[in-house]
Amino acid sequence: MPVPFEALIPMGLVGVMFFTTGTAYKGLKMIRNDGKPQRSNIDNFDVMMMNRDERLTGSQRGQSMEAIAPKEFATNSAWSTEKVG
């Protein structure tokens, strides 16, 4: 039993739309992660290192290879301050 050619056009459109949305979704994830693949299986240590990297470089995926942290790193601590006494 042959397939009517009228059915190929809508199926082609559906396929193109799946491809377009999937490609756009992957592109947005890559832009959000500075062009690197998305992380998986993140544990507490990874979250701590992502916070440190964000404080050092301004991006969760950015890393610095400087041996000495910039002066601003001393004052932008992840710990909130409270008055004691």
Largest sheet: none
Q: In DSSP terms, counting alpha (H) and pi (I) runs of 4 or more, how many helices?
A: 2
Principal-axes shape call: rod-shaped
- Euclidean distance between termini CA atoms: 86 Å
Structure summary, number of beta strands: 0
**Rg from alpha-carbon coordinates:** 23 Å
* Poorly predicted spans: none
What order do the SSEs take from the amino end to the carboxyl end, as H and E? HH
The quaternary structure here is single chain
What would the average pLDDT be, to the nearest integer?
A: 82
Secondary structure class reads mainly alpha
| Proportion in β-strands | under 5%
Percentage of helical residues?
Answer: 40-55%
Which descriptors apply to this entry?
85 residues, mainly alpha, 2 helices, 46% helix, rod-shaped
Please explain how this structure is put together.
With 85 residues, this protein is mainly alpha-helical. The longest helix has 25 residues, at 8-32. It has a domain at 8-60. The chain contains 2 helices and no strands. This is NADH dehydrogenase [ubiquinone] 1 alpha subcomplex subunit 1.
Brief digest:
This protein is mostly helical.
Give the arrangement of secondary structure elements.
Elements: H1 8-32, H2 44-57
Main location: mitochondrion
Pfam families: MWFE
Transmembrane segments: 7-28
